[in-house]
Specification:
Blueprint (H helix, E strand, L loop, with lengths): L6 H33 L6 H25 L2 H17 L2 H4 L16 H34 L6
Helix pairs in contact: 1-5, 2-3, 2-5
Length: about 150
């Protein structure tokens, strides 16, 4: 018996995961917008750039994953290119965790708990983008080269 769910179910899971990650990202944008409106400052706006950089490896992992299924020579070349771009940008996804270092350094009227919540939400979203992209690449390697290579 195979552990892989049928294709329609896999696609439904994929759409759900992308939708949840997009919703989490929009929540991050809303948290920054609310903070900016309340404090009339642009502190922590660098988080938006860090979140955008966290999406890059996810997008290229999804692209490589889709291209690998095509099983054509030209798709293979683009899969390798997408995988290399994924590898170059992958550290950006968990890097957002380091933004906790900025906690309390802004010195404005926003309560500390709000900044903790906002930083946690950004960090969690970035980390999940990284985990999902790593899963996609691991599955791609496992399908292409076997379980030993994709452990």
């Amino acid at each position: 018996m195979s552990a892989t769910p049928p294709a329609p179910l896999r696609h439904r899971f994929a759409y759900a995961i992308v939708g949840l990650l997009a919703a989490a990202s929009f929540a991050c944008v809303a948290l920054i917008a609310a903070r900016t409106w309340y404090s009339h400052t642009y502190h922590y706006w660098f988080l938006l750039w860090n979140l955008a950089l966290a999406w890059v490896p996810f997008v290229f992992a999804a692209l490589a994953y889709s291209l690998a299924a095509a099983r054509r020579a030209v798709a293979y070349v683009f899969t390798v290119v997408a995988a290399l771009v994924w590898l170059a940008f992958f550290p950006n996804a968990p890097y957002i965790l380091t933004d906790f270092l900025h906690l309390g350094s802004m010195g404005d009227v926003v309560p500390g708990w709000y900044d903790v919540l906002m930083l946690f939400w950004f960090a969690w979203t970035g980390l999940m983008l990284g985990v999902v992209s790593l899963y996609l690449m691991q599955d791609l390697v496992t399908r292409a080269s076997g379980t030993a290579a994709g452990w």
